[in-house]
Amino acid sequence: MMNRQKVIPFSIFILTACAPPKPPEMTTLPPKALPQDQTFKTHSAKNISSWTMTGAVAVKNKKEAWSASFNWKQNGPDNYQIHLFGPLGGGSILIEKKSGSVFYQDNQKRITSNNTDDLIYQQTGIHIPIHNLYYWIRGLPAPGTISSVDYDQNKHLSYLKQTGYTIKYVNYTNKQGIDLPSKLLVHSNEGHLKLIIKHWEIR
């Protein structure tokens, strides 16, 4: 007969050998390695309300056509200064909004209004939707009805149809970890607008 003292250790050895291996420890990717989704990109752009940008603009309709370089300083949603250099044959134009009032100033006059888009059209003959551009320039739809929208493979806004305008996004640039438009085309029945943003500074 087998000795009981030898059976017990042998049984323990069998159970230990047959036990399943310890599963490997789970690892978590660091946040910067996780892919950005559309929601993250959109929320990042939405958080931007103050910036300085420089670039070039070309506008055209049935009666007018001109181009200019520009400097756009935005200080929160309702305050901005947009300088246009060289439009309409030379000189400069300042379009400024502060304290709810809009100012248009060129080399000869300074005019006050409460509607930026109407004021620009009255003085230049060109429709420039500044109110909506505050959103479109960041790659975001403006508040209101959207007729059509599309995103590219990188989840950037690539096409937008809204309030009678069609916006096509040609290029993006990365600034402080956020992808922002660097070239967009804006079309409507009233005319065409091309914006090239050469430099973004988020403030």
Please summarize what this structure is.
By secondary structure, this protein is of the alpha+beta class.
Provide an overview of this structure:
There is one protein chain. The chain has an eleven-stranded antiparallel β-sheet, covered by helices on one side. It has four helices and eleven strands. It has one domain (about 45-200): Clam (outer membrane lipoprotein receptor (LolB), chain A). The protein has helices at about 5-20, 40-45, 115-125, 130-135; strands at about 50-60, 65-75, 80-85, 90-100, 100-105, 110-115, 150, 155-160, 165-175, 180-190, 190-200. The longest helix has 15 residues, at about 5-20. With about 200 residues, the protein is of the alpha+beta class. It is globular and about 50 Å long.
CATH class bucket: Mainly Beta
Tell me the distance between the termini: 88 Å
* CATH overall fold name: outer membrane lipoprotein receptor (LolB), chain A
CATH architecture: Clam
Shape: globular
Rg (C-alpha, Å)? 29 Å
Strand content: 35-45%
Low-confidence stretches: 1-40
Number of domains: 1
* H/E element sequence: HHEEEEEEHHEEEEE
Number of helices: 4
Number of strands: 11
Looking across the biggest beta sheet, what order are the strands in? 6-5-4-3-2-1-11-10-9-8-7
Give the proportion of residues in helices. Answer: 10-25%
